Amino acid sequence: MTYPFRQRRYFYYLSGVNEPDSCMTYDIESDLSTLYIAPITTQGVIWFGRGSTIEEAQD
């Protein structure tokens, strides 16, 4: 049985991103957050639909 993806609430609250295999880091000293999202692949689009582009994730 396959379950639909559901992002953890605290990650979505901090990042605003609802993409699987995403990570976020935060540097306290420089007050800089960095978001890492998985690249869009043909196989991923077939199975899961198109994910966010870098530009969409930055918004």
Structural account:
This protein has a two-stranded antiparallel ribbon with strand order 1-2. The protein has one domain. Helix content is 32%, strand content 17%. It has 3 helices and 2 strands, in the order αββαα. The N and C termini lie far apart (34 Å). The protein has helices at 9-15, 42-48, 54-58; strands at 23-27, 32-36. With 59 residues, the protein is of the alpha+beta class.
> H/E element string?
HEEHH
| Number of helical segments with 4 or more residues | 3
Shape: globular
Low-confidence stretches: none
What is the arithmetic mean of pLDDT? 83
Strand order, main sheet: write it out. Answer: 1-2
Question: What is the CA-atom radius of gyration, in angstroms?
Answer: 13 Å
* Helix percentage range: 25-40%
Indicate the structural class: alpha+beta
Estimated share of beta-strand residues: 15-25%
In the residues, how many domains can be counted? 1
Number of strands: 2
User: Major sheet, described briefly?
Assistant: 2 strands, antiparallel
Q: Kindly, what is the distance between the CA atoms of the first and last residues, rounded to a whole number of angstroms? A: 34 Å
